Amino acid sequence: MITDTALLPILLMGPMVRRAEQTGVCIQFATSKPATCQINLLELESYSDQQTVALGQHLYLHFVIIKPASTIFPLDSLLGYELIIDGSLVDLAPWCFSSQTAPAFVIPNKLTNILHGSCRNAHHPAKDSLVSASHWQNTQRGNNNQGAQLLLLSGDQVYADDVAGPMLLVIHQLIDVLGIYKEQTLALNLPDDINEQLYNRHLYLPKTPWQKRPKLGVGYWLKKDEPHFSSVKAYNHLIHFEEYIALYLLNFSALVWQCVNIKEASYLGESSKNQTIFNAEKTALIDYAKGLNEVERLFANVSTLMIFDDHDVTDDWNLTAGWEQAINQNPCSKRIINNGLISYWLFQGMGNDALIKTGELLTPFKQSKSANNVWQLQAFDKPLNNFNYWHYELTTIPKVVVLDTRTHRWRNESNFNEPSGLLDWERLTELEESLLSHDKVIIVSPAPVFGVKSIEAIQAMFNMCGQPLMVDVENWMAHEGSAKKLLDTFRRTDTPNETLILSGDVHYSFCFSVQKRFGDHPNRIWQLTASGIKNEFPRKLINVLDKLDSILYGPKSPLNFFTKRWHMEVDKHQTKGEGQKYLVSDSAISLITLEQGDLARYQLIHGDGHLTEFDLEEQ
C-alpha cells in the first residue's frame, strides 16, 4: 500500500482511448501531479491539445486531443501512440498487448467487430467480462487482426447506489491518500465515523414525510415515509462528490488499489448478517481489483464510448415525474443526483464527443471550486441540468446513434406516478430524422426496445397497482406516446433495411429479430441485448420466465395482438449447441460481427472466457 504521496507514480489511471475520428482522437488519463502532457501518433505527424481538471491535491484528470498536422488520420488502420509527460517519455508497456511495443487503436469507418455490454457491478460474485474481452482482443492482435474497433458501454458502468461496504471504506481511504477535493457540507445527519455509516446510509437519506404523500396511495394511510432514493440496496449509497470521483478511479484504474488497503478493511458493527455480506463483498472486490490491469489494457487499445443508465447516478433515476419532483424539491437529494451526473460527465461524458460540446461545461465547473479547494457546486447545477447533448452519433458505416434515455423523458403530466417515456417527442423526432436515408444503422439504447414480453407484462401489473418503482418499469412500451412514436418510425418505408439495437440494463442477454407484419419494405430490426458485464439475473427465475414467455407469447399466440407492438413480428433466437435457451443469465460482454454492415454473428464472451453464440437463422 502506498501511503507516502511522494512515492505515487505519475500515471494514476492509464490512457483510455475515447472518441477517435479522422480529424482528432481523444485520450483521457489521470496523474498524481499537475503536468504538461503530449501524445504522439507513431509514424504520423500530429500535435495535441490538453485540457486538465484538478480534482485533488494528487489527482489531475487530463484529456488530450490528438490532431493531424496536415492531412487527416487514416481509417481502419492500427495507430500506435506514445505519451510524454513533462518532457519525459512514459513507459506504456503495462498498457500494451503482448504482441505490441506500443498501445494502438483503430479509427473506425467500416465496422466489422464491436464489443458491447453494460452493468458492471464491482462486488457482484460473477467474473468481470471486460477481462475476458481484453484476453480476446490480445489474441486477435497476436494473430495480426485488429479485433474490435469499438467498445460500447451502454449504462451502469458504475453502481453509485449499490456500493459494497468494503468499497465505501476504501473510497474514503483513497480520498485521504489523494487529497481529493471535497464539497461543502450537506445538511444530512450522518455519523462522523464512516464505520458507523456502513449499511446504514439509507436511514439518513432524504424522505418524503407520509403526511405529504398522496391520500389515494397506501403509503399515506400506513403513515410510511417515502424514500427519495428507491434502490433496495441503498445501504451504502454514495452521497458526496468526492466519493463519486473515488468510485470511478477504483473502477477504471488498477494502480489506485495500491493506495488503499482492502485486505485490512473490517466491519466493526454487531450485525452478523452484515458481517457475512461484508466478507463476501470483500472477497469479490479483491478478485475484481486483480483484473483491472487487463481492463485498462483494453481501454488503452480500443476506442471506448459510453452512455449512462440509472445506476451511474442512482436506481430509478427520472423513472417518473413524481420521482423527479421529490428530488428537485429537496436540496440534499438534488445535490446527490447532480454529484452523480457531474462525475459521469468527467469520467464518461467528455470523452464521448472529445469535449466538443461537453467541454463547454469546464469553465463554470472550475469556477465552482473555492480558494480553499472546496467545491461549491450549486451554481454549476444550472448549466449542468440545462445541458442537452449527452447523446451522440458516429459517422461510421453503419452509422451509430447513441441515445440518452434519462434526461429527455416524456413525462406523464396527468399522473406523476406513471412511468415516463424514455424519450420525449422532440428527441424521438430527431431519432426518426437520423434514421432516414440510411441503409443500415446501429442504435444504442440502454433499455431494450423489444424486451421479454412476459416480464414487461409483470411490470405492467405492478404499475397498475401504483408501484412502478418496485419492479423498475423502465421499458419502451410502458409509455403509450413514446411507444407509438417509436414503432411508427420503425414501420416507415424510408427507414433502414437493417437496424441493430444494442441494449443492456436487464442483467440477462438475448437476441430477437423484428419485422413489421404488413407491407413490402424489407426492414429487419435486430434487438441485441447484452447484460451484464459483471452482473446476473437469478438463473432459476430467468429460466421460469423464459418458459413462461415461450408459452404465453409464442409466434402464434393470440396474446401478441394485445400488445403495443402487435403489428411487429418478433422472433426469438436460441443459443447454439447444448442447452439451447433464449435468455442467458451468465455475465458476459457481446461480440457483434458485421459483414458489409449486416449482422453476421452475435456472440457472448463470458467472464470465465467461454463463448456463447446465438443462431441467427430463421426460427
Please, could you describe this protein's structure?
With 619 residues, the protein is an alpha+beta fold. Among the domains are: 108-154 and 390-613, 4-Layer Sandwich (Purple Acid Phosphatase, chain A, domain 2); 165-290, no CATH class. The chain is 27% helix and 21% strand. The protein is built from 15 helices and 23 strands. It has a seven-stranded mixed beta sheet with strand order 14-15-16-17-19-18-20, with helices on one face. The protein has a six-stranded mixed beta sheet with strand order 13-10-9-21-22-23. A four-stranded antiparallel beta sheet has the order 1-2-5-4. Helix 2 packs across helix 5 (241-252), helix 5 runs parallel beside helix 9 (331-352) and helix 12 (425-435) packs parallel to helix 14 (480-490). The mean pLDDT is 92.
- The CATH architecture category of one domain equals 4-Layer Sandwich
Strand elements, count: 23
Shape: globular
Question: CATH class of one domain, anyone?
Answer: Alpha Beta
Rg, Cα atoms, Å: 24 Å
Tell me the number of helical segments per DSSP (H or I, 4 or more residues long): 15
Structural class: alpha+beta
CATH topology value of one domain: Purple Acid Phosphatase, chain A, domain 2
Largest sheet, in brief, is: 7 strands, mixed
Runs in which pLDDT lies below 50 for 5 or more consecutive residues are none
Q: How far apart lie the N and C ends? A: 55 Å
Helix percent reads 25-40%
Strand order of the largest sheet: 14-15-16-17-19-18-20
Mean pLDDT: 92
Strand content: 15-25%
